[in-house]
């Protein structure tokens, strides 16, 4: 969620304890005491040659390859190489033209996109304005059930206004809508293919037909997804360096680390924190860190139970020993989070980051005061159900820490373990949240504007999992979302940050950098969270000539 930026992300050396700092417009260099230094860079060393194929490890199988339903890391990691958006988030966290050559804003309530000519879908047909209109409108179809539907909340019309021109007309100014044309909401698919595939679109049977540097070749459910190079790809600067990519799904963290060490996987993003030290010193490849817009948070799912009382939410936040959580859950690579939206999410107006984020107080750790708040709320002994999963080791570590913290202050925190696919469902299916009070999230911005994160706390937004509602917050959001100047918008976003910290519909826990492991034979991958929408696999090739 960002607007175009011109400040490049430069490599820098930071201390281990300063886990989320990356030298970009968003995050200036800083040093914290202790720890072992490491470098954060937007990309790994460039490829020196081509590969016939490489294997990439995902921590879970994608639940879909339907762009309108892609709302999590696994599906977007695959789709980033197959489907493209009107705009594009780059590895150095800028927004640049994608399938749209340019956009204009003739008035505050209109966005006009001029499309590239001659772009081909994987089946050889040519992209037109009709495809763009159909792709964007699909998010607004209730029958599709897109989690991105609320992004189009202020849209009155999406119209073809020329063979290669599409105009979006708005009921009120909406800066974020344009920024999100660089993420899933701006993905373009063939209108004819969508109509033909119907309900099977994005499934192993229905497949997809987009414009990216790779095309979907096969999806063997439970085993792998294979992509093949698109020889007719329009962007020659990102022509794929490998003929094919095979994605494998390994849910167990130890097994995933072993795949890296044995070479059965050439690489993977979101390296298990429990394996960081082992992989870093293994000599079997390179562990790299990149810019991140994410923070680990506790999202309240039910405001009718004990957590409906602000005193209880504050108490639970105060009882969290975040520094030890960072050590246990993030391998020591991270810092306690000061706010729900991470420091790395403030890339749009870097000159404002220090004043609007860095000056925030460190989160309070006071078990005695927290216990007193629980007593004042009359919540002693009340049950709070926190969902956990084997999806990632960090989830279990944080869950256990929250349970222990709750017990220290008189709350009965019960852990409900669910399968990885059920855990992912919590973020896309409201029915999956029934009976749950809390969920551990890795909340991230798809773009470098923190306003994107804070939109998910608007009344009625799909990402507002607990249906929290605050009129003051909604009004402050509208003011920020109508402000086209990034610096001024950052100031208004700080108002949302202030309200969120006061009311705690989300409890911040910690921040950590993005991670990627590359075996000895492959290199070139972007290292940061931009890989969710940038065609990262096209950059991977041979490490040696």
Q: Your description of this structure?
A:
The chain is an alpha+beta fold. It has 3 domains: 48-66 and 201-292 and 514-542, Periplasmic binding protein-like II (D-Maltodextrin-Binding Protein, domain 2, 3-Layer(aba) Sandwich), CATH 3.40.190; 73-198, Dipeptide-binding Protein, Domain 1 (Dipeptide-binding Protein, domain 1); 295-511, Roll (Dipeptide-binding Protein, domain 3). It contains 15 helices and 25 strands. Strand 9 and strand 10 (165-170) form a beta hairpin. The protein starts with 11 loop residues before the first strand and ends with a strand.
Give the arrangement of secondary structure elements.
Layout lengths: L11 E3 L23 E3 L10 E8 L14 H7 L4 E2 L1 E3 L5 E3 L2 E8 L2 E6 L13 H9 L17 E8 L2 E6 L4 H5 L7 E2 L2 H7 L16 E7 L3 E6 L12 E8 L3 H10 L4 E3 L6 H5 L4 E6 L4 E6 L9 H9 L3 H8 L5 E2 L13 H9 L8 H10 L6 E7 L3 H16 L3 E7 L1 H6 L12 E6 L6 H6 L15 H11 L4 H18 L2 E6 L2 E6 L2 E2 L17 E2 L3
Parallel strand pairs: 3-14, 19-20, 19-21
Antiparallel strand pairs: 1-2, 4-11, 5-6, 7-8, 8-10, 9-10, 12-13, 13-14, 15-23, 16-23, 17-21, 17-22, 18-22, 24-25
């Amino acid at each position: 969620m960002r607007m175009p930026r011109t400040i490049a992300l430069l490599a820098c050396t930071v201390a281990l304890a300063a886990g989320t700092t990356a030298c970009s417009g968003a995050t200036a260099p800083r040093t914290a005491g202790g720890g072992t230094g490491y470098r954060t860079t937007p990309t790994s060393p460039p490829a020196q040659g081509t590969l016939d194929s490489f294997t990439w490890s995902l921590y879970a199988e994608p639940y879909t390859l339907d762009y309108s339903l892609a709302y999590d890391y696994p599906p977007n990691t695959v789709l980033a190489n197959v489907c493209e958006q009107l705009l594009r988030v780059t590895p150095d966290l800028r927004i640049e033209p994608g399938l749209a050559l340019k956009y204009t804003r003739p008035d505050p309530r209109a966005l006009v996109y001029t499309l590239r000519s001659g772009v081909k879908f994987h089946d050889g047909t040519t992209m037109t304005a009709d495809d763009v209109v159909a792709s964007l409108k699909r998010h607004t179809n209730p029958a599709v059930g897109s989690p991105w539907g609320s992004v189009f909340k202020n849209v009155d019309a999406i119209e073809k206004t020329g063979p290669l021109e599409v105009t979006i007309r708005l009921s009120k100014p909406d800066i974020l809508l344009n920024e999100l044309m660089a993420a899933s909401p701006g993905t373009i698919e063939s209108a004819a293919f969508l109509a033909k595939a119907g309900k099977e679109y994005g499934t192993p049977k229905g497949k997809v037909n987009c414009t990216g540097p790779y095309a979907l070749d096969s999806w063997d459910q439970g085993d792998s997804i294979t992509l093949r190079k698109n020889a007719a790809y329009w962007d020659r600067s990102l022509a794929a360096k490998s003929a094919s990519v095979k994605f494998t799904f390994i849910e167990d963290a130890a097994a995933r680390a072993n795949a890296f060490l044995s070479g059965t996987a050439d690489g993977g993003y979101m390296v298990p924190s429990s394996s960081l030290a082992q992989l870093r010193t293994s000599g079997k490849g390179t562990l790299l860190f990149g810019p991140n817009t994410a923070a680990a948070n506790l999202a309240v799912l039910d405001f009718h139970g004990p957590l409906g009382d602000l005193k209880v939410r504050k108490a639970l936040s105060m009882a969290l020993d975040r520094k030890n959580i960072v050590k246990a859950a993030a391998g020591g690579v991270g810092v306690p989070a000061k706010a729900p939206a991470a420091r790395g999410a403030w890339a749009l107006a870097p000159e404002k980051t220090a004043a609007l984020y860095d000056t925030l107080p460190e989160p309070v750790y006071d078990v005695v005061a927290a216990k007193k708040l629980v007593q004042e709320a009359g919540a002693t002994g009340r049950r709070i159900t926190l969902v956990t999963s084997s999806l990632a080791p960090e989830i279990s570590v944080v869950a256990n820490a929250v349970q222990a913290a709750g017990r220290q202050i008189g709350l009965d925190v019960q852990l409900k373990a669910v399968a990885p696919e059920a855990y992912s469902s919590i973020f896309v299916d409201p029915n999956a949240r029934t009976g749950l009070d809390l969920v551990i999230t890795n909340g991230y911005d798809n773009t470098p504007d923190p306003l994107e994160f804070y939109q998910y706390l608007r009344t009625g937004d799909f990402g507002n999992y607990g249906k929290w509602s605050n009129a003051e917050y909604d009004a402050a959001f509208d003011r920020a979302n109508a402000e086209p100047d990034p610096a001024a918008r950052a100031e208004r976003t700080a108002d949302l940050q202030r309200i969120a910290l006061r009311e705690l519909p989300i409890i911040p826990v910690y921040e950590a950098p993005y991670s990627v492991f590359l075996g000895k034979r492959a290199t070139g991958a972007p290292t940061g969270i931009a890989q969710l929408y940038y065609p990262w696999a096209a950059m991977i090739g041979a490490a040696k000539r």
